[in-house]
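Quick start: read one record
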Amino acid sequence: MKKSLAAGPLLVALLCLTVQHTAAQSVVSISDAGAVADGKTVNTKVIQAAIDRLAGVNGGGTIEVPAGVFVTGALFLKPGVNLRLAEGAVLAGSTNIADYPKMPTRIEGHAEDWIPALINADRCDHVRITGPGTLDGNGAPFWDEFLQRRKSDRNIANLSVERPRLMFIQDSADVQVSGVTFKDSAFWNLHLYHCHDVIVEKSRFQVPRDAKCPSTDGTDIDSCQNVTVRDCVYAVDDDCVCLKGSKGPRAMEDKLSPPTEHIRVSGCTFERGHGVVTLGSEATIVRDVVVENCTVTAPINLVRLKLRLDTPQQYEDVHYRGITLQSSGGTIMQVAPWSQYTDLKGQPAPKSSVHNVTVSDIKGNFGSFGAIGGPPQAEISGITLENIDVTLGDAHLKVGNVSGLTMKNVMVNGAPVSAKKQ
């Protein structure tokens, strides 16, 4: 017995040394793997080889990007491999579209052969992608090409000009993205598809303040469940946080697009964008959404519910509360039809519904109250506006086909407003 007790601590010590040694080996710097931080060498093959090697060693580890500017094309994380961007690290996307070879991917509510993102993760449960470094999409040439083609042909759609996303994570559980700066994405910044139990925190999503940067959504949450976005900053040229799914008259039959639900957005600051938290463009069932304790400092739509003319949609249990508004522009309510790229495919217009939406504890200065309404086939009910005290340039709330609109303790420009007056 005494011999066994004496051997125990020694065995524990040896095991600890082994664990520490394994942990030390599991962090691989891309510089040590041969990547060059000169801002021009395309390091895709070197970095991908390091990811692949790490995935096969002791269950994985962390790929680290040290300080410096490393250019790369599309990279694919593997199960068990995390990504860390150190202080001063920039992983910069190549501007050569050939560095993003086409492959089947999820985009705009369906699957098709399109280009991958700069960082891709498929079936990577427990993946951790952390800062404080930067992912730089070098988006300017992609934006310029899209805008030039759109100028000559207004029918050019978003997907007509290939532009890589910054990050695409799919079919993964227990995901964390923390402390990363997403800069100048050519298309969507962070696209989550068919994931659950996700945290996106303390990250910044930004494009140049005065440039046109089309389709630079901040965080697209597509057919996901249990997603928390907290303490992030958004300064993009499209919707900041967008809740997505499928589209088209038969969208409810799409088994690859389960409901987007149990979404929490809190403590975020919105400095530029089209919508704070938007439901649509492509979406079917979105429910149990809470947006709270956020600050809006730019002319952005606060509540943006896009009601497609060609898609059956159900939006329910959606709550915005504790929002501070600090802009001379922007709209509080934008519940309205959405007709971009409508295609009924020969089918009658499907029915949609919006139910149990609350907007409460809102204060500050903003542009206008906005509108609540939808296409004729949409049933909108159970809308509550409560404890609102705001100064607006346009105090009128336009109300369309809505039943059950309740307004409690709503003050606009110092005067009480009731549902009857609207």
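The chain has one domain: 37-421.
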